[in-house]
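TA notes, week 10

Several of you asked for a full example with nothing omitted. So below is the full record: C-alpha cells for the whole chain, then the designed sequence directly under it. When grading your own attempts, check the secondary structure regions first.
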C-alpha cells in the first residue's frame, strides 16, 4: 500500500531525525527525502502520528529552512547542519566533532536501549536518566560538547517525542520493542501492534509530558563553549 515501509534507496536523503526518516520510509513524506516544505511536514506528522501542527513543530519546520540555501524546502540530510536543530549528546547519533551526526549509531543508542532494566517499557523517569547518562558519557569523549539550555530543551522535546508519539502521550509510557524498532529500523511497528495515537498530540498534552520529563531530570547545568543559544546561523 501507499504507506508500506520501504528501506531507503542509496540515493534517498535521510538525516539525523528518526521521526522524519520513518515518515519518509512509509511514504508520509516524499520517499526520496527531498523537496520538503513546512506544509508537507505538518501534513505528514498528522497523517503518520496524529501530531497536530503545534508551535514546536512549526518552529522545527522553520528552523529546518535555516539549514538550506533553498527558500522554501529542505532535504532530510540538510537538517544535520550542526547547531541549528542538530546538537551534541543525541540518543542515537554521535556528535559531529566525533565524526557522524547523521546515521544511527548502535553504540550511542545502547544507553537508551538498556535503560529502565527489568521492565518492557520506557517512561518519564527512564527518559530523564538517559538524558543525564548520555551527557555524562559524551563529555568523556567530547569534552567541548555544546550543552546550553537550547540543547537541553531539544533533548527534552525529543524524549517527549519517542515516549509520546511511539508510546502514550498521556502517560509517557512507551513499549521498549516499539521504540527500538523506531530507532533501529526507522519503521512504524505496525505489524507488532503499534498504532498512531488515538488522542491528537497537541501543545497541551505534549507540554505536560515535557514538563514532567524536565522535572524528572535530577541534575543539569550548562557546559561547553559559550554560544548564542537559540538561532545560530552557520
Ligand atoms: C531528532 C523524533 C519532527 C528535526 C529527533 C529525535 C527524535 C525525533 C526522537 C532524537 C534523536 C536522537 O537523539 O538520536 C521526531 C518525531 C517528529 C519529529 C517523532 C514528528 C512528530 C521533526 C521535525 C524536524 C525535526 C518537524 C525539523 C523539520 C530533527 C533534527 C534532529 C531530530 C534535526 C537531530 C537532533 C539531534 O542532534 O539529536 N527527532 N522528530 N524533527 N529531529 Fe525530529
Ligand atoms: Mg545530534
Amino acid at each position: 500500500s501507499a504507506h508500506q515501509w520501504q528501506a531507503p534507496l542509496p540515493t534517498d536523503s535521510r538525516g539525523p531525525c528518526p521521526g522524519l526518516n520513518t515518515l519518509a520510509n512509509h511514504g508520509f513524506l516524499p520517499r526520496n527525502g527531498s523537496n520538503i516544505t513546512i506544509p508537507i511536514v505538518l501534513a505528514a506528522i498528522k497523517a503518520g502520528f496524529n501530531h497536530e501542527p503545534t508551535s514546536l513543530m512549526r518552529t522545527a519546520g522553520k528552523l529546518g529552512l535555516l539549514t538550506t540555501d533553498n527558500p522554501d524546502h529542505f532535504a532530510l540530510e540538510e537538517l544535520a547542519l550542526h547547531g541549528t536543530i542538530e546538537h551534541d549528546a543525541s540518543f542515537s547519533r554521535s556528535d559531529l566533532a566525533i565524526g557522524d551526526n547523521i546515521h544511527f549509531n548502535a553504540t550511542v543508542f545502547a544507553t537508551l536501549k538498556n535503560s529502565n532494566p527489568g521492565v518492557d517499557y520506557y517512561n518519564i523517569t527512564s527518559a530523564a536518566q538517559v538524558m543525564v547518562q548520555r551527557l555524562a558519557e559524551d563529555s568523556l569523549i567530547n569534552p567541548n560538547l555544546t550543552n546550553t539550555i537550547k540543547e537541553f530543551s531539544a533533548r527534552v522535546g525529543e524524549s517527549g517525542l519517542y515516549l509520546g508519539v511511539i508510546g502514550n502521550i498521556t502517560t509517557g509510557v512507551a513499549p521498549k520493542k516499539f521504540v527500538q524498532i523506531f530507532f533501529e529500523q526507522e519503521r512504524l511497528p505496525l505489524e507488532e501492534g503499534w498504532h498512531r495515537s488515538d488522542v491528537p498530540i497537541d501543545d497541551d498534552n505534549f507540554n505536560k509530558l515535557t514538563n514532567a520529563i524536565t522535572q524528572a531530570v535530577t541534575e543539569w547545568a550548562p557546559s561547553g563553549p559559550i554560544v548564542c543559544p537559540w538561532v545560530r546561523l552557520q
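Residues 16, 86-87, 90, 93, 101 surround magnesium ion (ligand 2) (CB under 6 Å). Use that as a sanity check on your answer.
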